[in-house]
Design a protein that fits this description.
The structure is a homodimer.
Chain A: E1 7-11, H1 19-28, E2 33-39, E3 58-61, E4 68-72, H2 76-87, E5 94-101, H3 108-111, H4 113-123, E6 128-133, H5 143-159, E7 165-171, E8 181-184, E9 191-200, E10 206-215, H6 224-229, E11 232-239, H7 248-252
Parallel strand pairs in A: 1-2, 1-5, 2-4, 5-6, 6-7, 8-11
Antiparallel strand pairs in A: 3-4, 7-11, 9-10
Helix pairs in contact in A: 1-5, 2-4
Chain lengths: 262, 262
């Protein structure tokens, strides 16, 4: 039996040219054979969108020199689906997504294209992880983040992940010497307080721009928000079974069949 | 204290003119004061996307005659956010989304714009529910679906929902007399087996179109797929805490801090 190097699929949502994906590729490139399939343009805030009503482009690019890399006109979830169906010849041993420019902690996991690539990987049965650095700047410093990526990727390759579980890793925006460690956490139950900025276009018609304030009323010290505020890297195990199992018995108390005369 | 009629926010992802949202409005209009904020064009497959890199339009429309209705250029999640911030003067007592033309059972909850409107409502603390009819046709028969919508909406208004729980309701495509009842279920752990259709454009360049086959290996009789296959309406309680709590102890066994010299 031939012993193959681990096959590592890389994607993101900031687009294939973002500094974050370059840092991610550098961090994992010595761990295995790297294949990149990422959006050809930024896709932040795409949530778990897939493109069903228009065609997709998938073009080879040599921007990562000797590495196999494709840019795709679709969403991060589309990239993973296309990689599995059209690019890769076997199931990858690891999918890494990111490194996102900006946090994807707490409720942001739902809105995040970075995490949707990882979620799609997990649905495909690939051990998957999304990485985000809590710094939106184009020229953010990914030095510490790269070390975190590497140790977590090594652990996943060595230990695997429980079936149906992916990881949401957020890295505080501090230098390596100020990092206090890595904490396994739960998702903080926080939300965005929307505030749409109302403006007028040059023709006098109103338009709105999404803005907002992040509000965290979850004071738990086992949450990702607590970890990040205390200079820990947060690692949240995530799954795609959205069933609120604890609510099933409550709902079983409702009389619903009567409407059907049953 | 003035006793107000329940305030009901209506949205969807097939667009404000879809027959499904018209059926939904008819089903809930006698239960309270109805306000509609829905996309101005179809948004299927948008997952939990939000629009952050471009402006949004929100325009009043009189297509629902005496009812307050707005069409929005954004995603279903954008519609709910804009409704809460710019249209409604108080928190609604109920959010209903749909009726989607096509199933949103099982893993489709992740890709569904209909469910993302309901998810956004739940994040806002609004009792929320998404309805889908397992029939993609424009001229689908919503007669039985309307009865199901009404009884579930009445129950939510009367009993509320547990904090952080929303409902994913799918209705099989059969006549009322063939419906066997309403079942509270868990999300079946199924997936889509991707198959991208590869084509050539008029200039000879390749493009891909997403297609695929739904594969359900989850044989549980407590799942939404089982319920639908057996002519039951499926009701899955859903939450937006994606933490895979059962995986926390597994991850706590990893040695991660060593990379930081801690």
């Amino acid at each position: 039996m031939k012993s193959e190097r681990p096959l590592i699929l890389v994607s993101n949502d900031d687009g294939i040219t973002a500094p974050g994906i370059r840092a991610l590729i550098e961090a994992v490139s010595e761990l295995g054979e790297v294949v990149i399939v990422a959006p050809d343009a930024p896709q932040s805030g795409m949530g778990h969108a897939v493109t069903i009503s228009k065609p997709l482009r998938l073009d080879k690019t040599d921007i990562y020199e000797s590495l196999v890399a494709y840019q795709c006109s679709g969403t991060p979830a589309d990239c993973v689906k296309l990689a599995v169906d059209k690019v890769l010849h076997r199931k990858p041993d690891l999918l890494v997504s990111g490194i996102n420019h900006g946090s994807n902690s707490s409720i942001n996991v739902l809105y995040s294209g970075t995490m949707s690539a990882a979620m799609e990987g997990a649905i495909e049965g690939i051990p998957s992880v999304g990485f985000s650095l809590c710094n939106f700047a184009y020229d953010a410093d990914f030095t510490a983040a790269k070390k975190i990526v590497k140790i977590i990727a090594q652990n996943i390759i060595k230990n695997g992940l429980p079936v149906g579980t992916l990881l949401n890793v957020n890295i505080p925006n501090v230098s390596e010497k100020d990092l206090n460690g890595v904490k396994i956490c739960r998702q903080a139950l926080a939300k965005w307080q929307e505030e749409f900025d109302e403006r007028k276009d040059p023709n006098g018609r109103k338009y709105y721009w999404l803005t907002g304030k992040f509000v965290n009323r979850d004071k738990g010290e086992d949450t990702d928000e607590w970890a990040l505020a205390n200079n820990f890297v947060s690692v949240v195990p995530v799954h795609f079974d959205l069933t609120a199992h604890h609510s099933i018995s409550f709902l079983n108390g409702w009389e619903l069949d009567s409407v059907l005369g049953k």
